[in-house]
Specification:
3 domains; alpha/beta; Glucose Oxidase, domain 1; about 50% helix; nine-stranded mixed beta sheet; eight-stranded mixed beta sheet; binds magnesium ion; single chain; binds phosphoenolpyruvate
Length: about 600
């Protein structure tokens, strides 16, 4: 049986992009183009009339967007629909509108020119931001600009298209994505946009497979052409061969039946055949993901990457803003608990402070940076404490490499507690404090570090990079980034055993836990808690309920004693075969 790799290696009819919303669809192309608006800079004589037109256009735009917002709320829930609320707020921005009116009066130019110019300025500010999130938002605003201009011309978009097509476009605004989805489109392909573009987020919410960032798919593909969209791997195949169609149809069928089969597992615990229960928690990056967590069957949030907030907000959120976000997350999850990780800034994540570091991964990152910037750290700690009233928040320190870092952090935390007490602010004075074990020095010292904290969480994404001395984002050495290296397995075993000896709970929250092949191995190594992306949780349940703990333990022991990654992977594959477990990565 051919694999995806085989298919893509030999395919000359492929276009590569980013898999933005998972799924596989086969269908005909519909080129979605909007007439390019030529903006008129002509002079006007009747200023009063122009301002009246502007108000009418703004009102009409607001009406349209309110309708879109209502559809979005119904289809995607209030959190995700928030993007359209934000658009409505721009239409209501008194400073923006006043600027436009003043310029119309002063320059006596067509209002469409001034609207276009003012909103473009807004966008330019966002585009020069270093944050990818802000850049994406700038594209989203394009929609408002064009909407007002169109309404100034008293025109309507004709967005009626046939059903069951695959939409291809240079870009898609959130509103386009939402409105087009009402026509039962099968998939989306765009030239621009990344994983965080709202078109991508909306496709994921609506469960419509999407490949974005293809650069030139809209020029390469023709209306009516047959394509296969693979939203898992980020490829589009045009004019597919019979063999390709057969391959993808089989994958699609398999996927549908697997998803049906998994539905009933949502409310079931993950228990091995011989009765060992594994706790499954969710990793959360974007606050909007909380909706998926609630329906995924997760028993809590094992890792909330709080630094993503900086990306979402485009700036460092204030103590109050953080308190609101953390409180909301904690109450949505209650009584389940949520582990908030302190800002893991540095490395390849943000460069807030303009340090020029030759070796950022070995530099001022995670807890090191927070201890250097105690104001930032204290604000976050206080926000976390303020949100902890219901006692379901745990706080986790990233990139810990020494005991001193833990003690200094704990001192700051107790200072914050004392300050809040003085202000009579309620918080959980016994909030659990834990650490990420993701640096070799922490792994070696687990026994001693565990005594200092309430819990540990293994971060394999970094642990692998630091153990193997291989940059996790560098393609040139990616073959050395071996999650199944005996070095990694032995280190995980050592951490788990030391944590158990110290009587402290240990979880694993790196991507490795979501690799289905690794699940029996991690359980066999003694992990009783895994934190993974919420969408993987049903698959994890399916796998964990398919084998015996006793067999996994034996298999893990063999793997740990082996010296070669390849042989370890073979061992794991054999374990899957013997226990008749279907690997999801084989299916999708
Ligand atoms: C890890 O390093 O495994 C981890 C979970 O943290 P991040 O990927 O955010 O560095
Ligand atoms: Mg990490």
């Amino acid at each position: 049986m051919k694999s995806f790799k085989d298919i893509y290696r030999s395919a000359e009819n492929k276009i590569a992009g980013i898999g933005a919303a998972p799924g596989i669809v086969i269908g005909d192309v519909y080129l979605f183009t909007k007439e390019k608006l030529e903006i008129s800079k002509a002079s006007i004589t009747d200023v009063e009339e122009a301002i009246k037109n502007l108000h009418e256009a703004l009102e009409r735009s607001k009406k349209e967007l309110t309708k879109i917002f209502a559809i979005a709320k119904e289809k995607m829930g209030p959190t995700r629909a928030g993007i359209f609320e934000a658009h409505l707020m721009i239409l209501d921005d008194p400073i923006l509108i006043l600027n436009i009116i003043n310029r119309i009066k002063k320059e006596k130019k067509q209002p469409e020119y001034i609207v276009h110019d003012e909103i473009t300025k807004y966008q330019d500010l966002m585009i020069i931001s270093h944050e990818s999130y802000m850049k994406e938002r700038a594209h989203d605003i394009e929609d408002i600009k064009n909407r007002i201009v169109r309404n100034l011309r008293k025109k309507q978009w004709k967005s009626k298209i046939q059903s069951d097509v695959i939409i291809i476009s240079e870009t898609l605004t959130p509103a386009d994505t939402l409105l087009l989805s009402r026509n039962k489109v099968k998939g989306f392909i765009t030239d621009h946009g990344g994983l965080t573009s709202h078109a991508a987020i909306i496709s994921r919410s609506l469960n419509i497979p999407a490949v974005v960032g293809t650069h030139d798919a809209s020029h390469k593909l023709k209306e009516g052409q047959k394509v296969i969209v693979d939203g898992f791997h980020g490829y589009v195949l045009f004019n597919p061969t019979k063999a390709q169609i057969k391959f993808f149809e089989a994958k699609h069928e398999h996927l549908v039946s697997l998803q049906k089969e998994l539905e009933h597992l949502v409310d079931q615990p993950a228990v091995t055949k011989d009765g060992k229960e594994i706790e499954l928690l969710a990793n959360v990056d974007v606050t909007g993901e909380i909706d998926i967590v609630k329906t995924s069957g997760a028993q809590g949030i094992g890792l909330y990457r709080s630094e993503q907030l900086l990306d979402e907000m485009g700036t460092i959120p204030s103590e109050e803003e953080q308190t609101t976000v953390y409180s909301r997350l904690a109450s949505r999850m209650y009584p389940d608990s949520i582990t908030i990780r302190a800002f893991d800034i540095g490395g390849d994540k943000f460069n807030l402070f303009d340090y020029d570091e030759p070796n950022p991964f070995l530099g001022l990152r995670g807890i090191r940076l927070l201890l250097e910037n105690s104001k930032l750290f204290k604000e976050q700690i206080k926000a976390v404490l303020r949100a902890s009233k219901n006692k379901n928040i745990k706080f986790m320190l990233p990139m810990v490499s020494t005991i001193v870092e833990i003690r200094r952090s704990k001192k700051i935390i107790s200072d914050c507690m004392a300050e809040l007490s003085k202000e009579n602010i309620k918080f959980d004075s016994e909030m659990d404090i834990g650490i990420m074990v993701e640096v070799p020095s922490a792994a070696v010292m687990t026994k001693e570090l565990a005594i200092e904290v309430d819990f540990l969480s293994i971060g394999t994404n970094d642990l692998v990079q630091y153990l193997m001395a291989v940059d996790r984002g560098n393609d040139l050495v990616s073959d050395l980034y071996q999650e199944f290296s005996p070095v990694v397995l032995r280190t995980i075993k050592m951490i788990v055993d030391d944590a158990n000896r110290a009587g402290k709970p240990v979880s694993l929250c790196g991507e490795m836990a979501a690799e289905t092949l690794a699940m029996p191995l991690l359980v066999g190594l003694g992990l009783e808690s895994l934190s993974i992306s919420p969408t993987t949780i049903p698959y994890a349940k399916k796998i964990i309920t398919s084998f015996k703990f006793k067999d996994a333990k034996k298999m893990a022991k063999n793997c740990v004693e082996n010296c070669f990654e390849e042989e370890i992977v073979n061992n794991l594959e054999k374990f899957f075969e013997k226990n008749n477990i279907v690997r999801t990565r084989n299916i999708i």
